[in-house]
Amino acid sequence: MIGLGNFLLCDEGFGLHAVEILRKKKYSSDIDFVDAGTPGMNLLHQLDERRKIIFIDAGNCGLEPGEFTRFKPGDVISLKKDKNYSLHEFDLISFLKTAKKLGKTGDIDIVIYCIQASEIKMSQELSSEAKKTLPILINEIYNELERGKSNA
Asked: Rounded to an integer, what distance in angstroms lies between the CA atom of residue 117 and that of residue 98?
């Protein structure tokens, strides 16, 4: 489980808030909870020896503010122009495409939960829309993890 974002930029920190809450729930010891922040290409190291990764991030995913979606990398294309991989130009879909070319994704089952950001501003607090969505998303991810345990 990898949370992405920046705690200092309101909804941009949604993935980090979610991982923090999920970490406190009881799971099997084989689940890692990673607060990855804004890692850029350093995220490659988090792909090593994984069977499944659930990314949680905020972005512009074409939904109403506070809504979220679940998808796999092959289900979408990035509309962001590839410029570079600085902290400010990080694009998870483009990153995963590059990681695949480098042979880093192998047989990893990758799932992405993306919330439509409502506010990106200097604040450690989530917007009201994101706060309402957080427990719903946590519940959905928790159920996905529980289903995975019964399928193992």
From this structure: 25
Domain that holds residue 50: 2-151
Rg (CA), the chain: 15
| Cα 72-15-74 angle, rounded to 5 deg | 10
| CA 137 to the chain's CA centroid | 11
* Residue 6: φ, ψ to 5°: -135, 115
Domain containing residue 29: CATH number: 3.40.50.1450
pTM of the predicted protein model: 0.89
Confidence category of residue 84, pLDDT binned at 50, 70, 90? very low
Total domains, the chain: 1
Helix axes 128-151, 14-24, angle to 10 degrees: 50
CA angle 47, 68, 13 (to 5 degrees): 60
Q: Return the exposure string of 49-76: e unless at least 16 CB atoms fall within 10 Å of the residue's CB, then b.
A: ebeebbbbbbbebeeeebebeeeebeee
Reduce the DSSP state of residue 116 to 3 states and report it: strand
91 band by pLDDT with thresholds 50, 70 and 90: confident
Task: Return left, alpha or beta for 66; rule: phi > 0 is left, psi -120 to 50 is alpha, else beta.
Answer: left
